[in-house]
Amino acid sequence: MTDLRDEALAALAQQTIELPSWAFGNSGTRFKVFSTPGVPRDPFEKVSDAAQVHRHTGAAPRVSLHIPWDLVDDYGKLAAHAADEGVTIGAVNSNVFQDDDYRLGSLCNPDARIRAKAVAHHLACIDVMRQTGSTDLKIWLADGLNYPGQDDLRARQDRLAEGLAQVYAGLDADMRLLLEYKFFEPAFYATDVPDWGTSLLHCLALGERASVVLDTGHHAPGTNIEFVVAQLLRAGRLGAFDFNSRFYADDDLIVGAADPFQLFRIMSEIVGAGAHLPTSGVNFMLDQCHNIEPKIPGQIRSVMNVQEATAKALLVDREALAEAQTSGDVLGANGVLMDAYNTDVRGLLADLRESQGLPRDPYAAFAATGYLDRIAAERIGGAQASWGA
Amino acid sequence: MTDLRDEALAALAQQTIELPSWAFGNSGTRFKVFSTPGVPRDPFEKVSDAAQVHRHTGAAPRVSLHIPWDLVDDYGKLAAHAADEGVTIGAVNSNVFQDDDYRLGSLCNPDARIRAKAVAHHLACIDVMRQTGSTDLKIWLADGLNYPGQDDLRARQDRLAEGLAQVYAGLDADMRLLLEYKFFEPAFYATDVPDWGTSLLHCLALGERASVVLDTGHHAPGTNIEFVVAQLLRAGRLGAFDFNSRFYADDDLIVGAADPFQLFRIMSEIVGAGAHLPTSGVNFMLDQCHNIEPKIPGQIRSVMNVQEATAKALLVDREALAEAQTSGDVLGANGVLMDAYNTDVRGLLADLRESQGLPRDPYAAFAATGYLDRIAAERIGGAQASWGA
Amino acid sequence: MTDLRDEALAALAQQTIELPSWAFGNSGTRFKVFSTPGVPRDPFEKVSDAAQVHRHTGAAPRVSLHIPWDLVDDYGKLAAHAADEGVTIGAVNSNVFQDDDYRLGSLCNPDARIRAKAVAHHLACIDVMRQTGSTDLKIWLADGLNYPGQDDLRARQDRLAEGLAQVYAGLDADMRLLLEYKFFEPAFYATDVPDWGTSLLHCLALGERASVVLDTGHHAPGTNIEFVVAQLLRAGRLGAFDFNSRFYADDDLIVGAADPFQLFRIMSEIVGAGAHLPTSGVNFMLDQCHNIEPKIPGQIRSVMNVQEATAKALLVDREALAEAQTSGDVLGANGVLMDAYNTDVRGLLADLRESQGLPRDPYAAFAATGYLDRIAAERIGGAQASWGA
Amino acid sequence: MTDLRDEALAALAQQTIELPSWAFGNSGTRFKVFSTPGVPRDPFEKVSDAAQVHRHTGAAPRVSLHIPWDLVDDYGKLAAHAADEGVTIGAVNSNVFQDDDYRLGSLCNPDARIRAKAVAHHLACIDVMRQTGSTDLKIWLADGLNYPGQDDLRARQDRLAEGLAQVYAGLDADMRLLLEYKFFEPAFYATDVPDWGTSLLHCLALGERASVVLDTGHHAPGTNIEFVVAQLLRAGRLGAFDFNSRFYADDDLIVGAADPFQLFRIMSEIVGAGAHLPTSGVNFMLDQCHNIEPKIPGQIRSVMNVQEATAKALLVDREALAEAQTSGDVLGANGVLMDAYNTDVRGLLADLRESQGLPRDPYAAFAATGYLDRIAAERIGGAQASWGA
What CATH number belongs to C15-315? Predict the structure, then answer.
């Protein structure tokens, strides 16, 4: 077990989790978006808040952007601001769902003009990538139908393939296209990229630099997500995670809050395939909504939860596991996995942080800085950033 | 079958469906609220639009209000406007979820001040009822928790019981309290009134004028809704329906759009118990969101869908059904039900409308009036009504 | 509409639905298998019962076998018996889940000996195909895990790919391999072929004669099945349907009994792609359990339900639909679909049957034959066929 | 924390978990029941196996019976055998689902003769209770419908109420009636006692000695079970638990295997209300199927899992929790709960066992006894007990 502990520490020291800029702005449900004093009013403030998470955890060195939510005049300036704060710009997310033109879809829209507009937006996002040093174009489409018959399911797939090909053609050689799937919402009858199979088929058609994004909240009830992880790794096309958690639909709660055992199983599948290593090409990101809880502490808790699940996954005695599996010892094999899960790894992670010159408890350390009070006092005037802004 | 047809026509002539004022304003998802030219800017315009539905279907003579969405200075004037348009004010819906104070709940909030505020809002709604002649106070609470441990599940039930009792005490003798339940959303871990059992327990504790509201989109996946209808009727506490339809969560689509067979089964349970008659005390309402489709035509289609399902339910040969059931003829009994469902009742309803001096096809007739173009041209300036307004 | 009616009649006259031999034996749940007098005691009697369905509907000319449930000494004799009864042998289904050896899986089992045994069974099935003239090898595997950690998810995929390749290599040139997927059951944690994506990936790896089987009851709650149909047709890999219906899990009820509108949407997707034509290569089969209802009438009702859904799908005015879709008329497009769905097609199908020399109502006509009483009286002694037999 | 640990140890020392006799016999799915050498052939051997679990855990002193599965000529002899083995007979479960007469239901059957037979069976079970000293009559009914229209939903509720009243009248003064609910299976369209609301309504109508049984696997997907626990405790009608776990439907896996965090939340709700104490009247039972894993070790693991969840629930700092809840500190309150959950309690439980003269690791200690090999060698001949036996 000592060896496993040392290996775990080494692996954990390398793990990084990307933060979403939009987690620091306001978010909510269709019923209400609650506001909180101190919420960022622009992408610069979002990056500053994100940097607080990295400062206290040492594990969150990148910030994803969402365009046009994070539209700025000078992306070089934003990248420089990030560098000043000790972080870098990560993936760029396109947003083709908040313009009245996209009422019936973007890349799948029956209207060719709107499809062209959606393609152009993606090319603009690629331009932002060039200016910020980002290499991942992350695409989640809200495209879908609310009513049976509303549009032709198959024709929409053809339009989608065509639009994605145009976007893919616009990528630089060192860039990737990451295509996310989602079971439902905001469309309520049919979604154009509803499952990993659809996303993978499009990626395979596009080329080697297209991969699938797995958002842990984007599946049908009961879906075995670690199985999907295993399948996408087997196909060599797991590009990124959007971590969060859910009890019902796409609840976007703090990762690990709803089902920590599932998060562990996912990370165990990742570790078993060596995909936790930086060389794997899997980008581990958060995608959450802090509707009622404070945002920076929520992100810190999320990073810690991913670290704890990863630590447990690294402590699985894989030799013993393989032996039990091979011999058909059902309860024994399950027991090996549960032994790791039942281990309290909070001390191990605190030791790691201490060895890195970080606070043992990032959540408490951040609270002690008074940062939230400071931004509440300072950020007066202006409009708080939010999903719709 | 001739007799059944005549009886069906007589019953259908009496059927009324209440319309929600908010269906005529904008609505959407957390991702986007699309706007449409001509959308009402105030409750008066909403009532006028609702009256169009009644004018063409003859079956939608009441309009529900939502407070504060439908706040006006003079409710007598609003009621008079409704009368001028040929409709009346129906249920009054309280709204205690769109104020920053309600972030952690309304009647269940841990803070006594906020609970008192929520009670006061309900008393204000009762006042609106007095001014508009409404007798139904409809309560749906967004109260719930996003995280395990966030609050005490049982203490919240106690607070809820206390708050509801205060509201109930404020009712006039001819008023009812209707308590709606909902499986989830906007709360993502626990909802304080999540199922019919919880709603019924509170209604039983309150007294005879408290009844349950069943929203067809507010159940766990797979729930047999007609069974719930049967249970609530057996308990004498089915106060009202909120009709809509859903494929996934609370999609709020046009009733009958997702599963017309389920709507028929629900109406068959209603008809079997005689609860379709005006004397039953069951208020049949719509509660829908027309996010991408035009709103008045969406409401007309909804009314027609309820009428078609009711007509089919009225055509069930209940003698033959009972005989097959009693004799244990599984396929025979199912066949009797399906015979009614498979009948095309559109002609029968067109005949009914013609006999009432109404257009045979209300959807086409409304389209021919040019009303939508007219309001798009006339309603310039002002802010369109919407969920948040 | 007259043209549509004529085209519909022509297409319906060509439609065939394959019957499962096991639907005529006993089936049940884990709680109880109820027995019925007259249930077949061997494959010959099953074929005779299946032939009754074809005799009265004219639309069910093939019978699928399940090996070893339908093990006989002389398959030539069974095929000849089928011919005498006016039907032919359809797909051969392998069964590698009812031997104690398969407790931890068949093709995915960690034990190489058991994997080899499972491959050998499939080769034996191919031999049955040669003797009966069958060209479809249909594979559904019960392989999966009940507990996390029980076996390695990814290693099982590798074993599966290897085993399937061995089976595929054993096919004759005119034979196809059809791979079915299932969300869960009998495995309760992970299933080795749980979704269409997994099945399709294996089929793509195998070669052009491997296609996916879509069982309508084998999906996660809320899955849009017609979307999956569209995807598999687009990929050219929809090999067959297993029709049935479900409210909850894999309930295996009569097709169209739980959600007739869904069945219509599926058939509309099929018709829209021309996949209802015999040349499409899609084999439309039933796979149901008649646990409490009589079996032959249950199959007759099922065939009629598929015919009714197909008839409605053929009546969709596809020109009007395309026009409404292209113009973004959400309610109009939905309305075109619903017009077809709301049409009562029972008369049209009765006319078709009459024109074919068949009874207008096959269900009533079969009941009138007294066949059920006859077999109940004649089939005395022996063990009734059942899933476990 | 020291205080909490001491209190936890004291409470854990009193906790008892009742074992189901049927968990030691064979069980399976509709697809296959696998057999294992050494499986009991009669109720006496089942009790002996159950006693092994108590011998190693010290926490499982009672065994539930299932009638007629556990039919014996002399119940006094069975009770004496249990006493010899150091355990007692717990609840008696009626079984009215495995006789051909019950095809269309038992207490809800349209046929009065069959309803009377089902009542008589329950009275016979009460007689078994008298002979064995059992005080809990546990009723789970498989009653329900597979097809819409098959029977009248409301009439079945009336028959159910009548039958339950007859059974209740037959109880001795010190006996309780425990009514279990289940979402679905084996009925696939409607179940007559599908939810806690229905069960509670019947219990309230029966009288004070009728309470609800909550089986953790008997809910719709996504149901918040700890909320139901809180509701039933608030109503004073939580009579018993059937513990197990599930990923999909009623999977009947080892409790805590699928979602250990959910089990902890349930136990936390129990502990918060003091319902873990023997005086609470809540009977904590297991109800599981060990289809592919060895049965006695599976039961030992289950008992340990309940103990671990309870230990964590007892370690929740409820003062700190209440303070965070009252002050609206969402993340703080959640953090208090998670602190307890993340604690590794295996050492604490090992200490408890050691202090009680029990093995620190019951699972390993049982394996070391060689009992399984012994029964495999000794129990030759006869028919293994199983669900159907």
Answer: 3.20.20.150
Chains with 3 or more CB pairs closer than 8 angstroms to A? B, C, D
CB contact under 8 A, C148 and A265: yes
* C-beta separation of B180 from B228 below 8 A: no
CA terminus-to-terminus distance, chain D:
50
Amino acid identity for residue B85 in this structure: E
pLDDT in tens, D139-178: 999 999 999 999 999 999 999 999 999 999 999 999 999 9
Which is nearest to A159 in space by CA: C234, C316, C228, C201? C234
Q: Within a 10 A sphere around the Cβ of C367, how many other Cβ atoms?
A: 18
* pTM, rounded to two decimals: 0.98
**Residues of chain A whose C-beta is under 8 A from some C-beta in D?**
221-222, 224, 247-248, 257, 259-261, 292-294, 297-298, 301, 308, 330-331, 334-335, 341-344, 346, 363
For residue D42, which of D379, D387, D384 has the smallest C-alpha distance? Answer: D384
Nearest-neighbour CA in chain A from C379: distance (Å): 44
pLDDT tens digits, B2-14 = 689 999 999 999 9
> DSSP character for D386?
B
Quick check: B31 and A186 CB within 8 A?
yes
Say how far apart CA C298 and CA C39 lie, in whole Å.
13
Contact C215, C182 (CB under 8 A): yes
Complex ipTM: 0.97
Inter-chain contacts counted by CB atoms under 8 A, chains A and D = 46
Q: Where are the beta strands (DSSP E) in chain B?
A: 19-20, 62-67, 88-94, 136-139, 144-145, 176-180, 190-191, 210-215, 238-243, 283-286
pLDDT of residue C66: 97
Q: What are the residue boundaries of the structural domains of chain D, listed by start?
A: 15-315
Nearest Cα of chain A lies from the Cα of B164 at a distance, in angstroms, of 22
pLDDT digits over D265-319, tens only?
Answer: 999 999 999 999 999 999 999 999 999 999 999 999 999 999 999 999 999 999 9
Convert D244-302 into a string of H (helix), E (strand) and C (coil): CECCCCCCCECCCCCCHHHHHHHHHHHHHCCCCCHHHCCEEEECCCCCCCCHHHHHHHH
Distance CA(D50)–CA(D43), nearest Å, equals 10
| Token pair listed for B366 | 């409304």
Q: What are the chain D neighbours of A301 within 8 Å (beta carbons)? A: 331, 335
**So what's the pLDDT on residue B389?**
47
Residues of chain A with C-beta less than 8 angstroms from the C-beta of C338: 149
Map tokens 């020392």 to a residue: D13
| C259 Cβ contact list (under 8 Å, min separation 6) | B259, B261, C245
